[in-house]
Amino acid sequence: MNDQEYDHCPRITGKTKIMGVIGYPVEHSLSPLMHNAALHHLGLDYVYLPFPIAPDNLQQAIAGFASIGVVGFNVTIPHKQAIIPLLHEISPVAQAIGAVNTVIRVGERWIGTNTDVAGFIAPLQTTYNQNWHEKKAVVIGNGGAARAVVAGCIQLGMGEIHLVGRNMEKLKQLEQSWIDSPLAHELTNKLKTHSWEQLPQLIPQCNLLVNTTPIGMYPNIDESPVTEDQLHKLPSHAIAYDLIYTPKPTRFLQLAQAQGAIALDGLEMLVQQGAAALKLWLQQENVNVEIPIVKMQQVLTLGVQTAS
């Protein structure tokens, strides 16, 4: 990698405006690399910074952001749910998911939303022409990422959504939490929860198989949430989607591709959710530009290769 490829450093001035990401820890995040490359490419006087904020300091940090005029910020683990009571308003999609990953400053108010759904469905909408209402999705996991994927499947119009997890109590709690959500009507008779032992019976009938767990993430690159024998029953031309983006590809995607499946990893989702957030912040600042998604993809790919 040459110096020109890494020439993404913003030029800080007395007028530079601040964006960022909060989490704990946050050192692993590739969002600063991606966003600063986009801002530099656009020639905008903004900088995107990582903020490691311990849970006990969350309220003080948000107040501090307001006092120094932070334009907006992303939210990652463990703050996606905890931040909700500190915001003035959350969007319907964030309310449905029960998690916020993007916060925008509007006047004196903090508005929370969630761009993970847009990030998840973007490569599916732009790459694959499907009659989604005839398709079945199997989603592995029961955390916040799984909630975003379920909401994305609803937005696509998926016919059936099967959620699989190891902890049935958490799965039932997740299922119950949708009852009062804006997506309750759409989920009626579509969402079903299953124990981990039922996964082999679901794979032969699925058209979209999504891993939302950390199984197979670096450094545990030899692991997969689905065994090779189980993936032998995956229909040909089904889509296997892993939200993990390092390693690239994961063991899960390697096994799925060997069965003729179409493979998608989490890198595109990370780019698309980041692009959606950046667009929201800049539009609020009355800056109307075309977000350089290709540049973000290129820099992020280099970042993933360097990190692994």
From TrEMBL:
Gene3D superfamilies: Leucine Dehydrogenase, chain A, domain 1, NAD(P)-binding Rossmann-like Domain. The keyword Oxidoreductase applies. NADP(+) binds at G141, N142, G143, G144, A145, L243, G266. CDD domains: NAD_bind_Shikimate_DH. Keywords: Amino-acid biosynthesis, Aromatic amino acid biosynthesis, NADP, Oxidoreductase. The active site is at K80. Residues 21-103 form the Shikimate dehydrogenase substrate binding N-terminal domain. It catalyses: shikimate + NADP(+) = 3-dehydroshikimate + NADPH + H(+). One of its GO terms (molecular function) is NADP binding. GO terms for cellular component: cytosol. The keyword Transcription does not apply. SUPFAM superfamilies: Aminoacid dehydrogenase-like, N-terminal domain, NAD(P)-binding Rossmann-fold domains. GO terms for biological process: amino acid biosynthetic process; aromatic amino acid family biosynthetic process; chorismate biosynthetic process; shikimate metabolic process. Its EC number is 1.1.1.25. Shikimate binds at S29, L30, S31, T76, N101, D116, Y245, Q273. Pathway: Metabolic intermediate biosynthesis; chorismate biosynthesis; chorismate from D-erythrose 4-phosphate and phosphoenolpyruvate: step 4/7. It is an enzyme of class 1 (oxidoreductase). HAMAP family: Shikimate_DH_AroE. Belongs to the shikimate dehydrogenase family. Involved in the biosynthesis of the chorismate, which leads to the biosynthesis of aromatic amino acids. Catalyzes the reversible NADPH linked reduction of 3-dehydroshikimate (DHSA) to yield shikimate (SA). Homodimer. This is Shikimate dehydrogenase (NADP(+)).
